[in-house]
Sequence to fold (156 residues):
Amino acid sequence: MLEMLMVANSAFAVIKQTLENGREISSAGSAIAKFVGAEDKLQQDLHRKKNSLWTNFLGKTDNDLEEFMALESIRVKQEKLREYMQLFGRANLYKDYIQFCADARKARKEARIKAEKRKEHIKDVILKIVLGILITAMMAGVVTVLFVIAKKKGII
Fold:
């Protein structure tokens, strides 16, 4: 959590410095991307932690205040970024940015779901192959035992 907060803080510092140096906000695109990525990762980590079985069993986490303050820090920086985009960017830049972020989150979620489905498919195929090998080995063993018994009784 602290690592993502540090990434977000450093990316925001780059955005702020870029604007203070008189450059356009578009020249801080990679820093904005890092800031948004760190924000998403932080929220995912906190959501995952919040919904974990262990946390639900124990009740509240030990560092609720730390988590709240991290999210509050991100919220304040997000608000500043909105102000920067409205002041130093083109018309409707922030609105377009919000739409782009929503589309990107949706695409990442779809990609994650697709990867999970692919992983499940691969597991199923491997399981079927292993079961096929085991069944074939058992059948070969049964045939071998029957052959040995038939030979001892003189049938063959």
Summary: The mean pLDDT is 86.
